[in-house]
Amino acid sequence: MSWALVRVDDRLVHGQVLLAWGGRLHPRRIVVADDAAAGSDWERDLLVSGAPGVAVQVVTVAEAAERFSAEASAEGAAFLLLRDLGAALELVRRGAVPARLNLGGLHYAAGKEKVSDYVYLDASDRQAVRELRAAGVSLEVQDVPSSRAVALAELGVEEAR
Fold this sequence. Notes:
Blueprint: E1 5-9, H1 15-25, E2 27-33, H2 35-38, H3 41-49, E3 55-59, H4 61-72, E4 77-82, H5 85-93, E5 100-105, E6 113-116, E7 119-121, H6 123-134, E8 138-141, E9 150-151
Helix pairs in contact: 4-5, 5-6
């Protein structure tokens, strides 16, 4: 089964992922692919401790790309969490191409424009979206599994701004 959820969410491991998605998909493993967190003992320990009963691994994006295919055939469900679209694009550039990418939380920051209640994008995000789509990745906005997944293109994110 494995990769039950590949999600971009700037909060990484948090209640929505654990309770809503975890309650629905029952992951055995969560892989957090984030260069900054992988390089910080404190952040890595915090993320690992945030999901009791689930094996959490915090790795660089390069390490996640190396493990991507092997994990895809592993027993049980797994989540792959990325902090931003740049990390998702780096994963794809390294040869790990998920069929679907869930956008669950890219929150407001200066220079970002609202796309949905919980997704804000800037010019570099939009460029990453174009490149991810060109690589064959389907991008969907969906905060929790009980809400309807909406294709990012339906929200008018096709055009460059």
